[in-house]
Amino acid sequence: MSFSTFAAFWAMSILFVITPGADWAYAISAGLKHRVVVPAVAGLLSGHLIATLVVAAGVGTLVASHPVALSVLTVAGAGYLFWLGLNMLLRPAAPRADDVQASGSWTRWMLKGLCISGLNPKVFLLFLALLPQFADATVPWPVPMQMIVLGLVHTLSCGVVYLLVGFGSHVVLRTRPAAAHWVSRFSGTAMLLIAVTLLTEQVLD
User: Is the dihedral of CA 176, 166, 20, 75 positive or negative?
Assistant: First the structure.
């Protein structure tokens, strides 16, 4: 894999990473709790890693070629996002200086992050579209290994951006409880809109 190919992939990848979506909304909601930013982001990244392995193993093409399987993934992901968004709207979070997180809470935030990215068909389809496009069958590296490396690069970029978003939201909002409530509601609304969009696209297809 040439450096120019690698750079071209990263340039395209970072455009998707810096575009706000469900992952951003979840990182912001974790930032309101501060101590759960790392496990929340770790969960999101786990979903990206799973998508990378699925596509690299060739399962991605198989799933994408079966509309029913993709529909099930879409509905499950949309339903989960809708549930999370609704809960954020009903119970908006606010940062607290004395907010102590138990280990069980860390596990829940990580699992929720894994479900958000792992059940998001947009993540899956992004990897399915990008990774094969930048893999080169003429180089000594096996194509699946190239896809895994590219997926890791994308996941690393996600990790940096999501951590900045999560910790940045905490720094900005910890002294502004009222603003934090509005941001929490905004994140919840974003999740609801993404869920509705996914379901609408599914119905129209």
Answer: negative
Helix extents (H) in the chain: 3-17, 22-31, 37-56, 59-64, 67-90, 103-118, 121-134, 143-173, 177-204
- Please say if the pLDDT value at position 169 is more than 70: yes
What is the reported pLDDT for 104? 54
Per-domain residue ranges for the chain? 24-204
What type of residue is 121? P
- Mean pLDDT calculated for residue range 3-19: 82
Give buried/exposed letters for 109-120 (b at 16+ CB in 10 A, else e). Answer: bbebbbbbbbbb
- Give every CB contact of residue 175 below 8 A, 6+ residues apart in sequence: none
C-alpha 6: how far from chain center: 22
CB 48 within 8 A of CB 154: yes
- Checking if the pLDDT of 99 tops 70, the result is no
